[in-house]
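go over whats below:
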Amino acid sequence: MGKDKKLLRKCPICLNETGQVLHHQSFEIPENYPLPSEYDVVCCLRCGFVFADTSATQEDHNRFYKDFSKYEFSSRGLKTTSNWTWDRLKAMTKYLPNKNVSILDVGCANGGLLVWLKKLGYKNLSGLDVPKRCIENARKQGANAFQGNLFSIDSDIPDKKFDFITFTHVLEHIYDLRKAVNNLVGKLNEKGILYVETPNASRFAEYYFSPFSYFDVEHINHFDKNSLKNLFLQKNLDLLELVEDETRVSNKTYPVIYASYQKQESFKTRDVVVSYIKKSRQNNKWPEINKLAKTQEEVAIRGIGGYTMQLLKNTSLGKCNITLLIDRDKNKEGMKVKGIPISCSLEKLRTHQGPIVVCTAIWQDDVLKEIKDMKLNNRVIVMK
């Protein structure tokens, strides 16, 4: 293990700036190569994500895939399912019973995955990749392919969103993960599904090929199931499933993780909370308490918790003639609210002649039973 260091590249998951050096990787690179000849493999000291602490930028990686792409000269994925077992194809499409859904494969290469989706009966197929020849090859397979990348996707595919986006073995190549995820989610329709697949770094030792072969110039992010969750759950996505699996690459078995996420209605929780606030405001009317504030009849309050504190501040309860505060929490004994000491003795309610105001949002039934069991004849007002 190496030393801790201040990172050149903030952790792509949590933006932490310190990491532990696990390994220094170096390469003999060609002339005019856009990617660096060395980097540290580091582990984020906050969230544990393992990645390449590279001096390159996203622009350098964009140029690499534009000028040095190897995928445009490959026929892999066009005629076989070597990279896409039927089980994983089923995993990708299990949430898509409608064959007319719009599908986008980001990083489509020559369109191999789109070919197999077409064989499964899906009709509305699109692909996105950087190299021109990849796009030409994908179009020959019948796909509506666009030339571009994730970082210009809105202009490369304008005015269009998709029901299903596949993002397979691309995430490990990307420098600016947060922006990439933002752009992906932005291209999903509401309730749209995102399928992501990457190598599984937590099983590299189990699937050993050769020394340091998992650390190359392209693979700069090394995900496990937790880091994959952490990256996407920062967005408004629900995790549908996450599976550790394996696939075949040439004659090798390769560890992978795949996950499916569903886009939720924009800020769904916010909208629910806004509805709750609206309902609370509509019901925040206390005619009996308002009357007590005017008459200044002596009032006892039973229950001095957070609910009572906000009622005292924001309703007429705070203007009432409060002479007794009762709570069962012994830690509150003697504490003063509005200059009135809190008592834990229920027996003090027996000498109180005025109304008892029950201020508890959850334990109302218990408190009312308590008052009934004491055979008190006071008028009881429940703040609910």
Remarks:
- Residues 357 and 381 are 5 Å apart (CA to CA).
